[in-house]
Give the backbone structure.
Amino acid sequence: MIDEGFYQSTYTGTKSFSQTDIQTANATGFGAAADDYAERGIDLNEQLIMNKPATFFFRMNGDAMQEAGIYPGDILIVDRSIKVASGKIVVASVNGDLVVRYFKQTMNKLWLEPANNRLGNISLDEFTEYKPWGIVTCVVHIIDPTLSAFNMPNKRKK
């Protein structure tokens, strides 16, 4: 025999059950026809972050990578679990300063290359204190000046 309770509606008639307990209910108590076709929202964490514990956000503070589309004030998503390889954009500590540059490697030479013709390459030789910190995977570029003003790092939130 088939269980009769399986085919009953969710509402059982108790006074403790409210309309908010039915997520798709509208003011009349019935779900909207479009609810069957509703899509889940886009979660930027799912879309942009591959390894959550190793991912950090940085704010770009210079114009060294502007020809690569990274401008001052942009937010960089940096993954520390990705291996450094030639051609990748790296956040690195060079002589105690954090820099964002292309990592370049040939057979016997390493250097960091900016995406700005005004700046020169940083040669990584035995006298340079170099430590790669992470690989830039994404750039968030804010367009609306209202949001830019809202996200200013020096703004005090009350």
User: Anything to note?
Assistant: Residues 42 and 144 are 20 Å apart (CA to CA). DSSP finds two helices and seven strands in the chain. The two ends are 63 Å apart (CA to CA).
